[in-house]
Write a structure and sequence with these properties.
Elements (H helix, E strand, L loop, with lengths): L1 H40 E3 L12 E3 L4 H7 L3 E8 L2 E14 L2 E6 L1 H4 L4 E5 L5 E10 L4 E7 L20 E6 L9 E16 L9 E8 L11 E3 L5 E8 L9 E5 H12 L7 E2 L2 E5 H5 L16 E6 L15 E5 L2 E2 L3 H8 L7 E8 L2 E8 L1 E2 L3
Antiparallel strand pairs: 1-2, 3-4, 3-6, 4-5, 5-8, 6-7, 7-8, 9-10, 9-12, 10-11, 11-14, 12-13, 13-14, 15-22, 16-17, 17-18, 18-19, 18-20, 20-21
């Protein structure tokens, strides 16, 4: 009798356990499976940089939600010279104010234009007014009349981005036929120093600190936005490393560097770059040419030779003389004139900096107070 009661109790306990397991599988198990399936196919985009950023979702369909969010804010830019299209590029709306929309693009996209027009995602061509631009920043601001389809893109923060983050751009590679093309890639590098030419020559005279991406970038993408998965602009496409043996290396100007210049360019004012007050020749050029007659020690292979000093400049009030070889600026080595400008433009008009130079084979230092390039 006692053993039968024990068997009954065991059966009751086993029944409860089996019933609980079945209930979990039928009711909760399906939800768990669905949740696991969802988490494997759907994940949130990067954390928003802007306070009012709308976070989007990246799933098996890619970044379509982010593209839709920004697509109507990216435009094709046409540079007209002598009533003909001289070149094309890309721009994007970053601000809408009343009846006007403000478009950011590269300075080299609108350089030399007699007339600039912009083509919207709806294929509407509108007249643009270039308010201001700067060669060294390689940014220009164009104002257009607002049309219904336009949206303003949010400016984010590249400093919050990490290597390997998914990024994308919308642009007009190769002109009108491929306008509105979307390309994706990853953030491949940060704080890259790339030597460029600010003029029409092949020699580099400026160094830019840029973001590197492996997203496809071609002629016509210049001036377009580089965006994170939330559609925030973290950089402005400026150039592509053009070498036949190199692929997948594109560059963008970090948006933080541009932000401090936007207001000045909107007003049509010149950016006030500091002036050292010397004309320069790269040591490598001076040593390899019979045109120059400077006394350069054999063990000096980098730096810049002072070829002349501007009257009334900070250099004129310093100990610098023609023929001196500048090797450092505030302790930072300058390999050539491009790197000297890069270091110089970290400072402001009125700042006093230390110049290290070589004269008669010996190292010296002097102080220079920077004047304005706009004087």
């Amino acid at each position: 009798m006692k053993s039968e009661r024990i068997k009954e109790a065991v059966l009751i306990i086993v029944s409860f356990v089996i019933g609980g397991v079945l209930t979990f599988v039928i009711i909760g198990g399906e939800d768990l499976i669905n949740n696991n399936s969802s988490s494997s196919s759907t994940n949130s985009g990067l954390t928003c940089s802007a306070a009012d950023c709308t976070k989007v979702v990246v799933d098996e369909s890619g970044i379509s939600e982010a593209v839709e969010k920004v697509y109507d804010g990216v435009l094709m830019v046409r540079n007209y010279q002598n009533d003909e299209v001289a070149s094309t590029g890309t721009g994007f709306v970053y601000k809408i104010d009343g009846d006007n929309a403000y478009v950011m693009t590269n300075q080299h996209v609108v350089e030399g234009a007699d007339r600039v027009t912009l083509i919207t995602s709806n294929d509407e061509e509108v007249e643009g007014e270039v308010l201001g631009g700067d060669t060294y920043v390689d940014i220009a601001i164009v104002r257009i009349k607002k049309v219904d389809s336009l949206v303003a893109l949010q400016l984010g923060n590249s400093e919050n981005a990490s290597l390997g983050d998914l990024v994308f751009t919308v642009g007009s590679p190769l002109g009108y036929e491929y306008r509105g093309s979307v390309s994706t890639g990853h953030l491949a590098g940060k704080d890259r120093l790339v030597s460029v030419s600010t003029g029409n020559t092949s020699s580099s005279d400026w160094v830019m600190k840029v973001l590197q991406t492996d997203a496809a970038i071609n002629p016509g993408n210049s001036g377009g936005p580089l965006m994170n998965t939330n559609g925030e602009v973290i950089g402005v496409i400026s150039m592509k490393l053009v070498q036949t043996e190199v692929e997948g290396m594109g560059f963008a100007i970090p948006i933080e560097y541009i932000n401090s210049k936007i207001e000045t360019l909107e007003k049509g004012e010149f950016i006030e770059w500091p002036l050292l007050g010397v004309s320069m020749i790269n040591v490598s050029d001076a040593k390899g040419s019979y045109r120059y007659n400077f006394d350069i020690p054999n063990d000096i292979d980098s730096g810049v030779v002072v070829a002349g000093i501007e009257s009334g400049s900070g250099a004129a009030d310093s100990d610098l003389k023609e023929g001196d070889i500048i090797t450092k600026l505030n302790g930072e080595e300058v390999a050539d004139s491009a790197y000297l400008r890069y270091e110089l433009y970290k400072y402001s008009v009125g700042d006093t900096i230390e110049i290290t130079y070589i004269r008669d084979g010996k190292e010296h230092t002097t102080k220079v107070t920077l004047s304005s390039s706009n004087d």
